[in-house]
Amino acid sequence: MAEASRILQSGFLPPFSHNSPSHRTTLHFNSSYTFHRRNTTIPNTINIQCSSSVSAAETTKPTKTKDIPWGCEIDSLENASTLQKWLSDSGLPEQKMGIQRVDVGERGLVALKNIRKGEKLLFVPPSLVITADSKWSNPEAGAVLKQYNVPDWPFLATYLISEASLMKSSRWSNYISALPRQPYSLLYWTRSELDRYLEASQIRERAIERINNVTGTYNDLRLRIFSKHPDLFPEEIFNIETFNWSFGILFSRLVRLPSMDGRVALVPWADMLNHNCEVETFLDYDKSSQGIVFTTDRAYQPGEQVFISYGRKSNGELLLSYGFVPREGTNPSDSVELSFSLKKSDKCYKEKVEALKKHGLSASECFPIQVTGWPLELMAFAYLVVSPPSMSRQFGEMAAAASNKSTSKKDMKYPEIEEEALQFILDSCESSISKYSKFLQASGEMDLDITNPKQLNRRVFLKQLAVDLCTSERRILFRSQYILRRRLRDIRSGELKALNLFDGLRNLFK
């Protein structure tokens, strides 16, 4: 699919207020899970916390998407040469790569000369990088946002809209004109499309949450700042359509640079690089050359597309931020999230909920499952779910292990309830497999009621993405089902052998 970049980490926009500290809040994401497409490690859950919340009913309302007046078609090369010339005139050194149409990513950077393994490429100077410290063409607007201590993400989203609205008057006009007019993003899916195509996947909930968060962040800005300064932030420019665009750009192209104190940035030219899950290299600031570079981990011949890594991300995470799904079985970092819950009929339900709350967990939690297995935290949660009242003293220990805050051995085991815990995980896997299979069986009948050719093309495209995602996620669950059944068979056969041995000894001593 289209190009993208990297976000690196999880979590999103902290609340901001006029009375908050003078510095803007740097975003820190809390995720142990991962994702495919430019150097990024995306959040497990992207949580934009705003004082202005958005209800599910509000997000269900149909909205007319206005055409964004800037940018270009996602596969267009019309502005590529202009962008490259502007970058060269502005200090970008001569490159060994050029923008071309490619099979993977629609647009990408292709080797123009032989490139060696271990070679440094790009050298984008900091003056050509967009950060929260970049100079505004409209300095009064930037000053107002700083006065309100707006965090980096909404700050950069507003900056991008402000610069884009100035067209040729902005220093960044050549860069913005080469950005996609409509980035591949679940932000552009309607609620009915999410419900229809992602009904079997946990990514649907995360997509709805992300849409709500972006809408809530815009509403926060509108109520707290834009409405008070309409001359600087007119609604015809700063509205939900343009914020969906700017956040779509940030999700797919923003990079966090470790050597620049973890600063988040848009890096023109570098963000034309596409992702390959077999590539390990990523962007960073190089102090010796004083530019943004990456070091190749393989050689490239002229005409070959050059790739970097967006981070170890699951197929669902890639769809969530970048709008594409890799071919089944090609992503070694792929995983599927499953939701697990305490049983309300449990005699110790209240005690278990209290134990979970003490460690920041709730009665319902999501855990990632990979082809290679599932995390120790899930096993601890399963132990807690099936544990009887006689094990109440261990509830706290199990909850701590489920939250990854245990001070004891990570691989704690409770042999007396291991079978029940594994069966609990198996039941959840098989329930999800049933949902995936039902969706995939019905997918062939979808969209036959569409008569508008453009709408049909869109629906077919979205359906194919959903089919690819559900196929890859079900594949992981099938593997987990096999492992769990085999493990349970071994446990039960061992128990049977023990019983047979006991019966034999009892008969011997009769």
Structure description:
It is a single chain. It contains 14 helices and 11 strands. With 510 residues, it is mainly α. A 3-stranded antiparallel β-sheet has the order 3-8-7, with no helix packed on it. A two-stranded antiparallel ribbon has the order 1-2. A two-stranded antiparallel ribbon has the order 4-5. Helix 11 crosses helix 13 and helix 13 (415-442) runs antiparallel to helix 14.
- Estimated helix fraction: 40-55%
Tell me the strand order in the biggest sheet. 3-8-7
Number of strands: 11
The proportion of strand residues reads 5-15%
Mean pLDDT: 83
Give the terminus-to-terminus CA distance. Answer: 74 Å
Please provide the ordered H/E string of secondary-structure elements: HHEEEHHHHHHEEEEEEHEHEHHHH
Which radius of gyration do the C-alpha atoms yield?
26 Å
Task: Please tag this protein with its features.
11 strands, globular, two-stranded antiparallel ribbon, 9% strand, 14 helices, 3-stranded antiparallel sheet, 510 residues, disordered N terminus, mainly alpha
